[in-house]
Fold:
Amino acid sequence: MADLAPVTAPTPLVRIRDLRLEASTQRGTAHILRGVSLDIGRGRILGVVGESGSGKSSLASCLLRLLPGNITRLDGSIAFDGTELLGLDEAAMATWRGARIAMIFQDPMTALNPLFTVATHLVDVLKRRHPGIGRADALARAREALVSVGIADPDLRLAAYPHQLSGGMRQRVMIAMALLVQPDLLLADEPTTALDATVEAQIVDLLEGLRRKFSGSIVFISHHLGLVAQLCDDLCVMYGGTVVETGPVAEVLARPRHPYTRALLECEIEDDVQGGRLKSIPGEVQDPVAPHVACVFAPRCAHASDRCRGEVPLPVEVGDGHRVACLRLGEIG
Amino acid sequence: MSTAGPPQGAQHRSAQREGTPVSTVSVAAPLVSLQGVSVVFGGQVRALDDVTLEIDRGDIVGLVGESGSGKTTLCRVLVGLTPPTSGSVSVGGETVARQLASQPLAFRRRVQMLLQDAVASLSPRMTIGRTLREPIAIHSLPRAQAEQRLAAILQRLGLPADVTAKYPHQISGGQARRVGVARALVMQPELIVADEPTAGLDVSVQGELLNLLLDLQQEFSLTYLLVSHNLNVIRRVTRRTAVMYLGQIVEQAPTQALFERPAHPYSAALLSTNPAIDPAKRARRIVLQGEIPSVVNPPPGCRFHTRCPVAQARCKTDAPALAEAGEGRLVRCHFPYSLSLQR
Structure:
């Protein structure tokens, strides 16, 4: 997949800078994103990994600007192909959703409307993208989209309601909807987590195949490092509402620099050795209510110094597109 | 996997057995024995079909398979919650049905279950202490002795003594999991059935729980049946693994031998889907076509033939039996080893 990387680095499709998201909760202000800076390359698949509560889904919500009502702060910058998304008013933002930005959710059953057939779902997205399209034309394209995601009897499935489909088939319908939109940016939030292993393999296979037909960029959110390693071009590791490390996936996984990325990789057990102690990261994820005055990983980091407990690290470029936010980077190698 | 290597599974297993705390009971008799167990719901849902499985005392057996393959039903049969429609289930040499009829409480102490959602398994209206003491009262265990044991277990699991005064919403998810373990251990069980104990856990904390379960197995001479979707966990902690498909065990083998060289085409496909971080460990993905059929109307012949990439004419009509395939392995396939993992 490295051969798809452009020779000269063009401007990224999306440039996120110092994105901050806060919400008011009963216990005080929750810092959900604590200054996220990240690029999403054109035509590339960016894998976002992190533990629960690391802010990966919130990042997707910010890109769509679909946020709950208790948000008290959203600032920084999301420059999407030259347009500042955070500067758009609600009406303008609405024209972006389902057109230039689309999303595939984790649970296709709740994302599809149980009252409408598959055909209605697909025709609706087409009409939104191409307002003048005729019904017959739309249906023909919907049928074509189902075939392209590997649904064998498209006419039967067009007439079906979501509950009549299996989980794998529902997720295929979601992917077909996203394809019809042909968005510049597709957000996929744990799209295979709810599926069984052999069905997950079918969907991963499909997503790999789609790379050739789809010219846009994909943000693939997952807690599964192995899956990200296999499917993505770039990797972004999140922890406690910050990006601790980002870069080309093979580079980051072969030469992780941030202590959190290293610790996370050590917890993975894919060796053939049976028995022996398993690794874990001691301590608990930082409380989102805690103020952001230090490295968020410092309380669990084996290398933390006094400086780490009193200063917020900024991302530093350590290689081609490989950035790490660690104050002790030079010392720990 | 191009180099399959010598079949060293059986050897490996006996080597491991030496290190395990072997009970004074005859080593030959397995702790758990399921013979031809079927469970049919409502006359047509064959949740389990002719399942035969033995678990040796002190062993850790893994159970893998997709939703609807019968893993949970098998667990329920083992703990006595679902009676088998046919076949026999025995724990410690006596059938579960007989034990439930003559001394139900003693049987329930013998077999304990760890539930997938630890937080949800605790009543929100009861303090942790009340939850943990409830079984002591139900089983009329000697109070002073049980209290002592409970205190020792809480300490062993690293739970603060004041956790007993708290309600489930006041403790962390990690503590809730350990409370679930404590609740099982208070009964001094012989067998623990753990249904997806690491599901929903971040990889950064799953190691801690698995280490704890492995330590406890040694300290308390426990036997585990471990159900998991996580093939890495199964490979790392279990000694034998049973693979289920549509209510049947299609293969059971020493774990290492299974992962090195799966004999059943379904096992091969399942193992090939496990994404690896290290490109060198990545198997070529075997993508099965179609959906998992329903157990209400399972395919004739071999149940896997509708999705099997190497099925032959015989598979469509002739149902294979679970047969010996060397290295302490049982396989339900007419043509074992015909689909292999490729790196």
